[in-house]
Amino acid sequence: GEVTVFAAASMKTALDEVARGWEAQTGNLAHISYAGSGALARQITAGAPVDIFISANPGWMESVTKTGKVKAREDLLANHLVLIAHDPEAAPVTLSEGLDLKALLKGGKLAMALVDAVPAGQYGKAALEHFGLWDGIKGDVAQADNVRATLMMVALGAAPYGITYDSDAVAEPRVHVVATFPDDSHPPIRYPAARLSDSDAARSFYAALRSPEAARVFTAQGFQVLK
Amino acid sequence: MSWLSPPEWQAVVLSLKVAGLATACALPPGIGVAYLLARGRFVGHGLLNGLVHLPLILPPVVTGYLLLLGFAPNGPLGAALARIGIALAFNWKGAALAAGVMAFPLMVRAIRLAIEAVDPRLEAAASTLGASRVWVFATVTLPLIVPGIIAGAITAFAKAMGEFGATITFVSNIPGQTQTLPLAIYSQLQVPGGEGSAAKLVVISITLALGALLVSEALAKRIAARIAGRDA
Amino acid sequence: MSWLSPPEWQAVVLSLKVAGLATACALPPGIGVAYLLARGRFVGHGLLNGLVHLPLILPPVVTGYLLLLGFAPNGPLGAALARIGIALAFNWKGAALAAGVMAFPLMVRAIRLAIEAVDPRLEAAASTLGASRVWVFATVTLPLIVPGIIAGAITAFAKAMGEFGATITFVSNIPGQTQTLPLAIYSQLQVPGGEGSAAKLVVISITLALGALLVSEALAKRIAARIAGRDA
Amino acid sequence: MLEIALKHQFAGFALDLALNAPGGITALFGHSGAGKSTVVNAVSGLLRPDHGRIAVDGEVLLDTQAGIALPPHRRRIGYVFQEARLFPHLDMRANLTYGARFAPPGPGVIGFDRAVEMLGLGALLDRRPGALSGGEAARVALGRALLSKPRMLLMDEPLAALDGARKAEILPYFETLRDEVKLPILYVSHAPAEVARLASSVALLEDGHLRAFGPARDVLADPGAAGGFGGRAAGALISGRVAAQEHDGLARIETAGGAIYLEAPGMAMGTDLRLQIHGADVTLALVQPEQVSALNILRVTVLEVGAPDGPSVFVKLALGEERLLARLTTRSVAALGLRAGLECHAMIKAVSLAS
Amino acid sequence: MLEIALKHQFAGFALDLALNAPGGITALFGHSGAGKSTVVNAVSGLLRPDHGRIAVDGEVLLDTQAGIALPPHRRRIGYVFQEARLFPHLDMRANLTYGARFAPPGPGVIGFDRAVEMLGLGALLDRRPGALSGGEAARVALGRALLSKPRMLLMDEPLAALDGARKAEILPYFETLRDEVKLPILYVSHAPAEVARLASSVALLEDGHLRAFGPARDVLADPGAAGGFGGRAAGALISGRVAAQEHDGLARIETAGGAIYLEAPGMAMGTDLRLQIHGADVTLALVQPEQVSALNILRVTVLEVGAPDGPSVFVKLALGEERLLARLTTRSVAALGLRAGLECHAMIKAVSLAS
Ligand SMILES: Nc1ncnc2c1ncn2[C@@H]1O[C@H](COP(=O)(O)OP(=O)(O)OP(=O)(O)O)[C@@H](O)[C@H]1O
Ligand SMILES: Nc1ncnc2c1ncn2[C@@H]1O[C@H](COP(=O)(O)OP(=O)(O)OP(=O)(O)O)[C@@H](O)[C@H]1O
Ligand code: MOO
Ligand SMILES: [Mg+2]
Ligand SMILES: [Mg+2]
């Protein structure tokens, strides 16, 4: 059998590996379309023939759920939000109300994902607000259209610091984590998964996402597997 | 080609198919619309002109979104087309539609400029020789604008090869079905450390489009020289 | 305008500024490159042609990425420009650069077609009247291609108004500095239920670009009629 | 039958004329800017005049009052433009045959091979317009119009770019079109000699208006209108028939006023022809001239001495039933005492009739 | 001094000629396709010939062997093209003054106002090329070249689109250019009358080669070359000087062979001029003609009877120091018994000299 999977772009590395394992084990085929969660959710709403949807954003999962096509759904993964730096010498940063982020940037920009639209940006903004740092820094935030672009800006040194998920930072050797935002500083970061068809392959893939093998892969990529 | 992984190879073939179909299908209406815009005097001229340019003006995502609204299986046009057995959403034909729509204004612009450059006195001469408007177009205007048509088609082809936003929004990014080269490049860029393989795809993309460009260029030059044959 | 929120209003003004600057700056090199491509016989002709078309062929994200590599504050060109006091990264001038680069091939195509349509016999006549190559260009070729230049400029302007991928990748999305209309629209579309406010921006975007289109169209037609003044 | 009534206004120029041409070749003659091309464009349908009516052989092509305006391609009117307007993307063969596909089946006014031969296009058939000389292009344009099987021809200075020899080759063919094919032709020309030779009717345009119109014989022999053609060109037309081709290459033409000798190579006995005798080529003598080289010495009677026009005048002569014009200086008129009713001798050189 | 040596090959056409023109107006005469425009293009610099050398007044414009090839805009050669080639984006005033800005300061061959007046362009100055008649466009093109202050002019059938009256108006100005401004002119024409009137030297081209070249007087009076011009056009050139403008509008011209009368309105006493006397306009008589309208009756001696060319021959006559050509039928030659050495009388009508 075959499955069509729509998944948030930031899951590509991990999910590709999980899917390869599943294909090897079952002899099935997985077609995975990676794009922004919003684009995928709209396509599903418009009738895309999809078996599995993994969103980086509970909000978009809600809009898909409203279509009534969702057969099963649960939160699959969680993630941490981290502050990353380009300069390998950059010292660890202690997040607190008194942090002078602006001085840290030395005139550069703080890279984030779109703070009103893309989940990573929304979480990041919430976290900075939590520490009362947002208002002081918002003019110096460069917002990219997704987390990967944020990561790239820091990796290239176009921005000295950036806020991404832990899973992104893990994979990019040109950046390193200088601080991890505490979980209570922002709404919980959740990757909900949904099954939209009842085919055997869809059931099988959906189950494989929760398998120990998958958990190993996700963990290795910096995600936290939710039990 | 051993240095291309099967999915990469798939993306290359798919891109050529998509851009080729998009260009081929856009050409006849492109010529027609260009002619209307260049020579037509009618109410709604400005409207048509605006409509044609829309995909240029709008962010590609919006165009893709509008296509999705219209042509998705449960969109109004999509449902109608489904009834006659044509499915566009989430397959390569849909990708071609997106690429074609995005490339259309470029094609029309080029052809229209070529038509406007045709000396109307030649068309007048043809009409006195008995050619009706349609014949004048087919036997005089059309041959004279072949270089413009080639230019328009190749610009459209290049654009179609590079189209990203509307495509991913409309037909998603399904390997082997809708994952064209730009989408594959995008996907690679989503993977930390994927720049290397993205770069490979970029090189392929450039090579293909430039190859097409140079071939068409040479062709157009040859035809133009044949047409002009003008002395100093 | 009370029905536009201040940030929306900002995005409108910024878009016009960005597209205007992009078009204005691209025009002189656009004319130059178009002339070289239309009339020049030199080695590297094909290369130049390919280079000009690159932004059309590549996914916009890649173009943005390459711009970022080159023009970021620590990129080679960015550093050089910074030394003479020009900063492009993360400000509206950078957005204009991105939009200009993306629109450049469209502009060059249009102008090149116009140049190729100029009757070389008129240029020859001018040269016998004492005009050097530069003067021939300035006094004969250039005036004759004004409609083509307008067409190229407006196509470029429209494209610049709609440019998204390269812009957000190169200068990111900073409200009031780099958040042009397409970026604002994209942001709205990423939020569940944001379609409504996106639609408003889409309408504004269309209105502005079509307005420019129609004005330029009328202008070009007028000039072309003055130039042609041809009888039947 | 060609009926033309036109009113049209350009900025700074107004055309207003009406004429009924009886068929044959109607010459439009007039200064640069007089409106000749404008008339021709209106007949072809390329120009929609403000007001007017145009009919060919009774078929109405245009009637602005009745709201009729046939499009150019339905008029079947061959048009040889002032500039060649060849199709640059077609070789000469394709240019020549362009109109044939739209024409009704059946033989046209001329076949392809004959046209190629007549216009000397054999070596050019595979060329493109860019590689032609000016005269070559003009000849192809002429052939293209003829091969579209028109029921009428418009020619806007078709021979202006041609050399004398080529003109001399083509002119007889126009006469064939006029006399045998009976193709009506509206012929714009600046060359009085062409007009004189070809035209059945002549319309003399001046600033958008008809200054004179009528049978060529009358208009050309009208001392009043003659000035419009330039002094040298005016002269009477007389009809004749080839009575003999003599051994030394001269033809004897019988006219109503007696025999006239001239060079007419290749003209068969019995052929009807028209001679224009330029006023400037006629010398008058009161006594029969002896031992002169002029072969044609005709007895004529002075009918009228025209009004002086500079130092010269036209003198109208009767040659039997025919009329002749002689252009003389006022000095000679006075010296010879020329006046109406006087009999005298007109000397005309055979070679001056040859061109 | 204009030196031209050219070799150039087109597919199916080879040009190969060399000539040294002494200044004045050099006419290029020849059939359509003979290579006239090709020569002119090479002189202008628009065509780079395969091999050749071109020099004007000693300045080398082209020398393919030495690797010299001045670009067209540095040659300062005014070019009146076979088609008008007006700039469509400029009105007529701007077209006319286009070349002035590139020209060296100082007065040119003609001033703006004078050119406008001469060419009758007053009413057209604010028009655009699309709104001109064919002849109007040709006149503007001529003015444009003159106003670029050229040191030499190339004219490719500049008068072909003009009517007789306009031609007659412009021709004297070319004579002024030739005689007073001493502007060298290379003049392509199909009209023998123009060539005869204007040319100092005549080059007769045939199929890319020179068939005849030399002073106009010699080439035009050469019965051998005359056929190249069409029979009617050939004729001798004789020089004279206006000796009197008489009361009845005729001018008396003193020539080496005696007085000749003709219409020469507006020519001042003492003006030198050149007359072409067409062979076809000369009638010979063995006895002094009496009571004839021909005003000019000159005593001549037969020098040579040419070879018959069809039914007619050229007869070369001595008129004092000057030479005349008469074109007669062989029949008349026989009837009059013309032979070298015979004295006779040449009758030439004043009006036939007028055009
Ligand atoms: N660019 C070209 N390529 C090939 N052949 C050419 C080209 N230009 C001219 N020819 C040929 O060269 C010959 C001479 O042409 P040219 O234009 O010099 O003739 P011309 O004497 O000016 O004739 P016309 O009086 O008809 O203008 C012609 O046979 C013409 O077909
Ligand atoms: N499209 C136009 N707009 C304005 N005026 C025009 C237009 N076409 C022609 N004219 C004017 O109308 C007049 C008649 O032009 P037309 O072309 O009929 O002259 P023509 O008799 O053919 O002259 P030629 O012998 O020089 O070709 C001219 O004064 C010309 O300037
Ligand atoms: O995976 Mo996202 O939607 O780019 O944060
Ligand atoms: Mg005309
Ligand atoms: Mg020529």
Automatic annotation (TrEMBL), chains B, C:
GO terms for cellular component: plasma membrane. Signal peptide: none annotated. It holds the Pfam family BPD_transp_1. This is Molybdenum transport system permease. Belongs to the binding-protein-dependent transport system permease family. CysTW subfamily. It is a multi-pass membrane protein. The chain crosses the membrane at residues 12-38, 50-72, 92-115, 135-158, 201-220. Residues 12-214 form the ABC transmembrane type-1 domain. Keywords: Cell inner membrane, Cell membrane, Membrane, Molybdenum, Transmembrane, Transmembrane helix, Transport. PROSITE patterns: ABC_TM1 (PS50928). GO terms for molecular function: molybdate ion transmembrane transporter activity. InterPro entries: MetI-like, MetI-like_sf, ModB_ABC. It comes from Thioclava indica. It is found in: Cell inner membrane; Cell membrane. Part of the binding-protein-dependent transport system for molybdenum; probably responsible for the translocation of the substrate across the membrane. SUPFAM superfamilies: MetI-like.
From TrEMBL, chains D, E:
Residues 4-232 form the ABC transporter domain. InterPro entries: AAA+_ATPase (IPR003593), ABC_transporter-like_ATP-bd (IPR003439), ABC_transporter-like_CS (IPR017871), Mo/tungstate-bd_C_term_dom (IPR008995), ModC_ABC_ATP-bd (IPR011868), Molybdenum_import_ModC (IPR050334), Mop_domain (IPR004606), P-loop_NTPase (IPR027417). Residues 291-355 form the Mop domain. One of its GO terms (molecular function) is molybdate ion transmembrane transporter activity. SUPFAM superfamilies: MOP-like (SSF50331), P-loop containing nucleoside triphosphate hydrolases (SSF52540). Transmembrane segments: none annotated. Keywords: ATP-binding, Cell inner membrane, Cell membrane, Membrane, Molybdenum, Nucleotide-binding, Translocase, Transport. Signal peptide: none annotated. The keyword Transport applies. GO terms for cellular component: membrane. This is Uncharacterized protein.
